[in-house]
Specification:
Length: 119
């Protein structure tokens, strides 16, 4: 059973920084990719950033240049470093891990961590 545990959310002023952590129960190498999604009230869940097993990364346009995703495979943990935070970054942030592709794809989700950015 795959478990993803997020931590690091909280309340921060605009312009501040936070680091989110996603600890996986298994090796991060066992996943095709791990990413961070967020969902604000009344909005759809959206991809914020992702990192593949090979280390390739991708970001939503709204966070490019401000957020960095990284992984520590020795600790089976993926991080989201969030800088220059804006009130519109306020959301529940979810860690997502993917195994397999196509019909064999399986997604795993963490419980979410709240990030609130005050103006």
């Amino acid at each position: 059973q795959v478990q993803l545990v997020e931590s690091g959310g909280g309340l921060v002023q605009a312009g501040g920084s936070l680091r989110l952590s996603c600890a996986a129960s298994g090796s991060t190498f066992s996943f095709n990719a791990i990413g961070w999604y967020r969902q604000a009230p009344g909005k759809q869940r959206e991809l914020v950033a992702g990192i593949s097993t090979g280390g390739s990364t991708n970001y939503a346009d709204s966070v490019k240049g401000r957020f960095i995703i990284s992984s520590d495979n020795a600790k089976n943990t993926v991080y989201l470093h969030m800088n220059s935070l804006k009130p519109e970054d306020t959301a529940v942030y979810y860690c997502n891990a993917v195994k397999g592709t196509g019909w064999g794809r399986r997604d795993y989700w963490g419980q979410g961590t709240q990030v609130t950015v005050s103006s």
